[in-house]
Write a structure and sequence with these properties.
Largest sheet: 5 strands, mixed
Number of helices: 4
Pfam families: N_methyl
Keywords: Membrane, Methylation, Transmembrane, Transmembrane helix
Shape: elongated
InterPro entries: Bac_GSPG_pilin, N_methyl_site, Pilin-like
Helix content: 25-40%
Protein name: Prepilin-type N-terminal cleavage/methylation domain-containing protein
Radius of gyration: 25 Å
Strand order of the largest sheet: 5-3-4-6-7
Length: about 230
C-alpha cells in the first residue's frame, strides 16, 4: 500500500507576504534618496578634483610663461607661429592630458576631456547642459604678481550650455538665470590660488571676478554678480 509523507514546512500566508512587501517598500523609500545623495556627493567630489587639475595646470603654465596667466578670452593667437583658436582650455590642455594625447596639445576634444569636465553633464529640470568649466575673462594674460588676492579671484566654475569662458553676461545667462545648479544649489568654484570652494554664485560679488584688472570698479565690491 502506498504511503504519503507530508512536509512539515508551511507556505507564507498572504498577510506575511504583504508584510514583507511593505518592509521592502519602506526600506526602498529610505535608501533611494540616500543613494541619490551619495551619487551626487561623488559627482561633486569628482568635479572638485577636475577643477583642482585646472588650478595645477594654471600654476604650471604661469611658471612656464614668465609669470603670466593664460588667455581666458576666446579668440585667436599665434602658437608655434600658427594662428590658433585659443582660450584657457587650449592653453592649459597640455598640462592636464597624458603625453599620448599630444595631438590634442592645442585643441579641445570633448571626448578626451570628459575627465576634466563637470561630472553633472546634464541636469534635468531646466533643459540646460552642464559640462564645461568657464574661465574668467577679466584676468586673461595678466602677470600673476598683479593679482593681490589670488585666494579671492575666481578663475573658473561650471557653465551651462557648454560655454568655455565667462563674463557677467554669461554668468547672468548661464548661471544666475538657471534655477537648477550643477551641484544642488551651488557651483564648485576654482580660485587663482588653486583652492576650490562650493559657492552660491548669486551671492558672489563682481569684484571676485574683476579685482586688480582693468575692468574693476569700486562699485564691484558691493555689487552682486546677479545684478
Amino acid at each position: 500500500m502506498a504511503t504519503y509523507r507530508f512536509s512539515s514546512r508551511r507556505a507564507f500566508t498572504l498577510v506575511e507576504l504583504l508584510t514583507v512587501i511593505a518592509i521592502i517598500g519602506v526600506l526602498a523609500a529610505i535608501l533611494i534618496p540616500v543613494l541619490g545623495s551619495m551619487r551626487e556627493k561623488a559627482r561633486a567630489t569628482q568635479c572638485v578634483a577636475n577643477l583642482r587639475s585646472w588650478g595645477n595646470a594654471t600654476g604650471l603654465f604661469v611658471a612656464d610663461n614668465n609669470g603670466r596667466l593664460p588667455s581666458s578670452v576666446h579668440g585667436t593667437t599665434k602658437i608655434d607661429n600658427v594662428d590658433m583658436s585659443t582660450d584657457a582650455y587650449s592653453c592649459l590642455i597640455r598640462y592636464v592630458m597624458p603625453p599620448n594625447h599630444s595631438t590634442q596639445k592645442w585643441g579641445f576634444n570633448s571626448n578626451d576631456m570628459a575627465a576634466y569636465m563637470c561630472s553633472n553633464l546634464d541636469d534635468a529640470g531646466n533643459g540646460m547642459k552642464w559640462g564645461t568649466y568657464g574661465f574668467n575673462i577679466y584676468p586673461s594674460q595678466l602677470p600673476m604678481t598683479t593679482i593681490s588676492k589670488p585666494s579671492r579671484m575666481i578663475w573658473a566654475t561650471e557653465l551651462a550650455a557648454g560655454k568655455r569662458w565667462m563674463d557677467f553676461s554669461t554668468l547672468g545667462t548661464h548661471l544666475i538665470a538657471t534655477t537648477v545648479k550643477p551641484h544642488g544649489k551651488n557651483n564648485n568654484v576654482l580660485y587663482l590660488d588653486g583652492h576650490v570652494s562650493s559657492q552660491d554664485v548669486a551671492q558672489l560679488f563682481r569684484a571676485d571676478f574683476t579685482r586688480d584688472t582693468a575692468s574693476y570698479l569700486s562699485s564691484h565690491d558691493t555689487q552682486r554678480v546677479a545684478n
